[in-house]
Amino acid sequence: MKLCSQCHEREGVVHLTHIEGSEVRTSFLCAKCAAEKGIQTTAALADTPLGGFLAAMGEGGGTGGTHAAAPAAAPDKAGEATCPTCGATIQDFRETGRVGCTECYRTFEEPLRELLRRLHGSTHHTGTTYQPPGTPAEAIPGISTQELRDQLKRAIANEQFELAAELRDRLRDHE
Amino acid sequence: MIDLSLLPDGGMAWLDASGPGSHLVLSTRIRLARNLSNHRFLTRNDSAERLRIFQEVTTAAAETEGLRRAASFRLDRMDSLDRQLLHERHLVSRELAATGPGSVRVGGGLLVQDLISVMVNEEDHLRLQALTSGVDLQGQYRQLRRVDSELGQRLAFAFHPEFGYLTSCPTNVGTGLRASVLIHLPGLVLTKEINKVLQGLTQVGLTYRGLYGEGSEVVGNYFQLSNQTTLGKGEEELLDQLGSIVQRVMGYEERARQVLLRDATSILEDKVWRAFGLLRYARSLSFEETMNLLSGVRLGVGLGLIPNIGLYTLNKLLVFTQPAHLAAVAGRELDEDDLPVRRAGFVRQVLEEEVGRHNA
Hints:
The complex is a heterodimer. Chain A is mainly α. Chain A is built from eight helices and two strands, in the order E-E-H-H-H-H-H-H-H-H. Chain A is flat. Residues about 40-45 and about 60-75 of chain A have low confidence and may be disordered. Chain B is α+β, with helices and mostly antiparallel strands. Helix content of chain B is about 45%, strand content about 15%. Chain B contains twelve helices and ten strands. Chains A and B meet through strand 1, helix 6 and helix 7 of A and helix 4, strand 6, strand 7 and helix 7 of B.
């Protein structure tokens, strides 16, 4: 039996090839470590990826239907909570697979964080930071100086010199 | 019927085969999912709230550079055929167009300016989209980002410090970005290499769908390649990754075509000319058959085996041979028996004109 190259505990079931730039890394993962990276293995396959996660939510990993399998013991906090803004419960979410409003992401933060981790392999947004209304005008059109610098670096690396010149001008305007 | 002259270039500039890599890639689409923090999301709101959302979005859009001149449509005020027409042009999703059974959603809307459009009250309050010809991920994202930022200055978007942009479905949380490239891969299908390529895609966090996105079947050897996850990676990283894989897949497809041309010239020639012959002379064509035959002709054009047919013409046929477009041309709704006959007639006419133009 070949062990998972990440946890070195369970049997590996999936070969993962990770390509970053020109660097190729391969690893051999067990179902659990693969799921944490957002990769579906045959063993974990449900009707739909989201469906499987939803069915398991708040049920200690059960994969049965929607309501019937609800545990008899006291449900966890998120299990009984109701969103103060839209009135949705975790049960509503499990049935529709859709979140009710912005506040739901706070009300059901823990189960949703777990779900996001399983879906995306991460819970941390590393993309553009939202500039809400009232942000100083110089921040418009919304691309931060750091973002522009990163784009410039990439444009030079890719030998897109026309684009690099445009970005350099925009950076100058920003600074 | 809808006045298509309101749409910039009929909403079809993405078909003109002018972008980089158009010989293999039909279009690049980028969409950003955004929601308003002060309104309930789709599954918990009602018609009145959706109408307020539509109002707020159109008011804000009118103040922006990117959408000031936008044509604005309320889908619930259109008849079903017009909604389907917009769907066939890839401007609204099947769900928002509600072409199937079930009533159309009150407050569902569409704004279009140049290559940018916004679906309102789709699964998310706003779905900003850029759609263009060929492969152009970075350029389209820059355009879309500008509109996103202009709108975000006027509307309070739902944003979480850890999770990023919040969406109705958790699969879109984070960047809310889905970038997809619609690519024609007959070489890889004919050489039976396609499954290997598609399997490889899923291992690097990408996914594939058919011509009409989620839930649609692959027809005519068109594959929509897109990012699977939206959280944990920045927008540029997601685009770079998709872009580099698309370049690689294009390389594989070119290679497969060269192999076919070298090892199976006569079979290939026969295949593409048969496809052309059927399209040119058939009297009844189903949509699927048309897609598959167009795929064959497109391959023949790409390999230089069939002269005098433009990619723009083939691209337009992909869209115009669909039911709502054929009905628009006929000026009336067509029934199941009429459609294949009308389709074949339309294809014959277009190809005749195209060949005639080149022979003139």
